[in-house]
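FYI - complex with zinc ion, inputs then prediction.
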Amino acid sequence: MNYMGKDKKFVEEITAMETDFAQWYTDVVKKADLVDYGSVRGSMIIRPYGYAIWENIRDVLDAKIKETGHSNVYMPLFIPESLLQKEKDHIEGFAPEVAWVTHGGDEELHERLCVRPTSEILFCEHYANIIHSYRDLPMLYNQWSNVVRWEKTTRPFLRSLEFLWQEGHTCHADEEDAMDETLKMLDVYANVCEEYLAVPVLKGRKTEKEKFAGAVSTYTIESLMHDGKALQSGTSHYLGTGFAESFGIQYSDKNGELQHVHQTSWGITTRLIGALIMVHGDNRGLVVPPRIAPTQVMIVPIAQHKEGVLDRAYELRDSLKKAVRVDIDASDKMPGWKFNEYEMKGIPLRLEIGPKDIEKNQVVLARRDTGEKEIVSIDELNTKIPELLEEIQKNLLEKAKDHREKKTNLAMNLTELQNSLNDNPGFVKGMWCGELACEEKIKEETGATSRCIPFEQEKISDSCMCCGNKADQLVYWAKAY
Ligand SMILES: [Zn+2]
């Protein structure tokens, strides 16, 4: 790449991921213009480029949420303390992270208000008012909103005081219907991650220790980051009838008898942007999968002061606009600066066009994922570019799958687990007896947590990796964000 020499310094501004992965991450989120820090510790400002990525994720998922029969609603931001106390397990789980409003203007409130850390309780109170008969079921609601969790250690997108998400909340007549919903939405999440974000995920159930506060069971999609740490990328919970009993959400069945509804809740957050950064990014910055990329093709005119170059570049943009998300940088910055800038931002394809290209009726296309350059006739662009974008999309998923495979190991005992985490950090498959004591010991001694009990079970041994007793469950372990 001929522009490397002159602009080397610009590239050196990002810490190499091999040197310090955490610093690399921080450099990328800042230099790719995704976020800025808010004035309250742990809060973030999502800048236009970061927000555009979020909007694309949101639009894809929102369409799927609606296709599967859900309606969007909006719940209040505040929860009165008395209401919060109604479901004991739930409040105990969230209490350490709750932010409280104690004053309205100058006046102290009679009752403290909690800023929602999640909205189960608000939905439940509402459902108790509007659900009466079996004809009202299933009730399938979703909310796009912000929530607040007063986290002690924070990082942009991965853990921040306030984040954006969607939370689905549904009510069903029986367990079977509610479980179908729980697993259906987990599949929707997995599909969005793999087909759009090109992030491969493991699907499975959380252990009792790791499940959502107040849930009967929690299902999760787990992905593996470049540094070998896992990221919980979305969860779907079967809540049983616990909330319905606390809040009195009942319906009369076909025989006129009162029954409690079975509930679910499920959510994904702006964390997915963190996954995208840490799965696909490299030492030149972000790499955004084409299906989610706000700009799929960036046109960089070469020697744009020469007659006809900009006109031709704009013409190309207008003709490509129908098929792809395309933009042009006609600023007076040097092409080398622009190359670096759009590589940093992870734009999938760069299109270079200069006087010589115009003479030959061609352009240069450069792929962000492989760095490969190709000369393409202008007449073929309308078919070639969408093809290349699809290829990039596929390549990113394949690369991420390979990476995950290379970083998935087996362990028969704690020593092997520890060695694996030291030598080749990633997922470790190990058998577990089901005892909390073993799960806690593993975490204490190795720092790895149980990520999930995968749906696709294998029997790699008969005995628990920790205590050696009989074990019939395979669990994925990893250090996690
Ligand atoms: Zn055990």
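The first strand starts at residue 35 and ends at 37. The domain at 297-391 is CATH 3.40.50.800 (Rossmann fold).
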